[in-house]
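SEQUENCE-TO-STRUCTURE ENTRY
===========================

Subject: a protein chain together with a token-level encoding of how that chain folds.

Sequence line: the amino acid chain in single-letter code, read from start to end.

Question of interest: how does this chain fold, as expressed in backbone structure tokens?
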Amino acid sequence: MPPHPALGTPTVRVEGPEKVTGAARYAADQSPPGRAHAWPVPATIPRGRVTAVDTAAALALPGVLAVLTPFDAPRLGPWDDPTLHVLQDLAVPHRGWYVALAVADTAEGARAAAGAVRIEYATEPHDAVLYEDHPAAHTPELVNGGYPGLREHGDPDAALAAAPVRVDCAYTVPPLHNHPMEPHAATAVWDAERGRLTVHDSSQGTGLVRKTLSALFGLPEEHVEVHAEHVGGGFGSKGTPRPHVVLAVMAALRTGRPVTLALPRRHLPATVGHRAPSLHRIALGARRDGTLTALTHTVTSHTSRVREFVEQSAVPARIMYAVPDIRTRHRVVPLDVPTPSWMRAPGETPGMYALESAMDELADALGMDPVELRIRNEPAVEPDSGLPFSSRRLVACLREGADRFGWTALRTPRRDGPLLCGVGVAAATYPVWIAPSTARVRALPGGHHLVELNATDLGTGARTVLIQVAADALGVRAGSVTIAIGSTGLPAAPLAGGSAGTASWGWAVHEACTALAARLADHHGPLPPEGLSATADTTEAAKTKPPYARHSFGAHFAEVRVDTVTGEVRVHRLLGIYAAGRILNPATARSQFVGGMVMGLGMALTEHSSVDAAHGDFAKSDLAAYHVPVHADVPDIEAHWIEEHDAHVGPLGAKGIGEIGVVGVAAAIGNAVSHATGHRLRDLPLTPDRVLAVLG
């Protein structure tokens, strides 16, 4: 490795050998002496109350230590997320809500005990069906991310009526589930003598877990220690604490023994959040040369009665194209369903599916190339705020992508025997988020350097990139740098989410290492035994936002084959071109982009859940029914990027890349299917039954 591993050098993951040899320890792998296991009992009614719990049969089983119920579980303190107030009262807000917890010596024993618990209920009428004109629909003041629920400029209705060319389209996105490879799990250890709690949690941010547990259990934060050394993915579902970690702590307090609780996969859809189904209505008005004059985008989605969560799906339309008259509105319907939450690129993923599909329909109505239509409507400033962009190279992404893909030559639909062949394009965007962070770095005798901060590596390569950042700032070999992350005992850092991790953590690491390098330059002679150290806190700098609209952009191109006999859609090629700031490690970056594109492919073709109207729960709750893409589904995928230097996103120039890869992929594939077949399908996923229905 070169002495200065310049950022931009492809570097393999430092934790790779641990993971492939099984040495990496995840939350459920922790095995303190005397460890017990817990298994939760989900409610089987769609709404109502628990009237009785019979635990006798469960407690009689060998090795069973306890069964916690709403009648006797530890009482929790106040917290702003009511989904965590489990076993606190008798109400059942939806099917799958936890109503008991079995604890035993073994996981098998806990599962058997949970199955032996008998619950009696009083059921109440429920409503689990989302539809556009639901009487309970309302427009929230704010949606996820702090965006206004409604924004309007000009008079879009009048502009639409006057537009020479109009399209008015309705699209649906079904409920989608995160389903990380590692299910949510926690191991809790309660030290009664010292009044200290230690938790290993599968989480995207241990700092928030500690703060939450401290409040719920009435413990000083300094008496709560949370670790997340390795995390097997999250896609947003581990961004906030989930009921499993609260239940694990309850069980440890009750039994006095360490307790591991690993949620079975079938529990995840009802317990850890989901992407809510969304109904989109988009109208576009344009002049005959393709210039947009009006846009309206209304999104209706569901939330639970436990906690309101509204995905910001109409927000991308506020920043993508130059439209003088525009209205974007969110509407939400409270139902007796599990609580939705974050899923990779919340808002942008479903919102851009609808917007980019509508742009394609407008291109068809105009007889215009879809790439050129997007370029024609490139804004000079962010339409919603009027702020200049810190950088915006969407046009470059579209141009380079079209050239690499051979777009022009493929614009005529083809037939190859029973296969219809077509291509599609869609733009991508994701905002830049940077959060305050701290970091500490130490130079030790012998030429070693230790970087410390409470970052979380979800499998994205964060450890590796942060080591590169440190080595680059220190001017040393990456091999001389080790890093400690994933523990509340380390300097505070924000959670891994919103594609903000590397930009936020890296800024603090860069500042700490720059300060240490200056200190080392002034130091003469050998280092003291404890070494020399430096710290950084980016709170003030990160909170001071420059007067620019900061976003990443990209373009996706897809080529599909549609089987006229079976209705099956196969994606032959996918290409993504991104302008996402400085790419710090091409190897891990490409992995992130490709992973997002695969997730978008699943959204387009296979991933689909549905709420059972009779039971109020998801009918597809495991990977046998909820079909994520497998190797045979994934085509030739290419991911490239435009070199971009943005001086307004911190000293590293990094924008974050974990989520933009999924944005727009479903639209590009849907547009390609429309191009191939001559028929527009507006409801995801594009399954064979839906395809055959339009082919006739």
Remarks:
- The longest strand covers residues 292-304.
- The chain has a mean pLDDT of 97.
